[in-house]
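Hey,

The postdoc asked me to send both predictions to you directly instead of through the lab channel. I've kept everything plain text so nothing gets mangled by the mail client. Protein one:
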Amino acid sequence: MTTGILALVVIAFTFMFPESPRWLALQGRYDEAREVIAIVDNVDPQSEHVEFILTSITSMNDLSAESASFSSLFKYGKEKIVYRLIIASATQLFSQMSGSALITYYSEQLFSTVGLSHNLSKILGATDLTFKLICCAIPFFLIERAGRRKLLMIAASGMSTCMVSEQSSC
């Protein structure tokens, strides 16, 4: 029930978020795009900084609009789109196969099964979710410093080690 309430809060706040400046520029709504860029960067909407960002966005939109198509997802060209698609899909697949979503969903029942009280089980389940939230914030600060590839390889190695040690203990 708590998860459902949290989901409703997220949905309610989603409608308060502004549209992406890239999407607004793509739709030809440049004044709104300027406003969003100004809010995000905390500058005046008529500043040179906003104009530079908006010009960059529109030029990127023009570039990507020329080559964008559904079939381009499955082509291995200069942008390596299919490679990126495979990495993203594999990361999600491995995340689900590791059972993290299942453990999160059933954590309260798992803790109750091992003999913990109902309240303690709820607290530990919430602690598990809070820990995951905190851990998800770590890459936000590390990606630009360490690089995406290096972090992905370290995480994959750690997950592989955990899965091998789990299999050998059974």
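Protein two:
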Amino acid sequence: MADFAACLAMDREPDVTKYIQGPWNDPAEHERFLIDRIERDWGPRLGYWSIFAKESPDQLIGWILLIPYEAVGPDIDIGWRLRHAAWGRRYAAEAARPVVEHAFETVGLPRIVADIDPRNVASIRVAETIGMRFAGDRSYANGAPGKAYRMTRDDFAAAYRRNP
């Protein structure tokens, strides 16, 4: 909750939530949504992680999530959101990599998933940069198109192979 106000401000940046469904235009519902997301128990070792730039460690620039897909699972979703001022600086991929490692090495997940609006080219690049693979086109509940990305344990082992 320490980052609540900064998260709320980030979500109010029109470009930040342009491709994401949510209660962005209803201030009271937006606050309830955000409180629920922050305070909900997503399960052991799952949740949201705040992102701070090394050069500005007191200023939230975004977050990474690892939560049940569509808030219910069984798949686990990885996602990211950054303030517009932090875009194009590779922060999302840099912050997502340790969360990917956490997903497979600590939590022991068999795979992680991400659905991305096809117009959100930057988010697609982040998914591909961290080793996710395109798994097909899909439609959201409201009929909007989406692109499904996946990373299996085998994909992770290949992409994150460490030298002995």
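Summary for protein two, as requested: The radius of gyration is 15 Å.

Thanks,
C.
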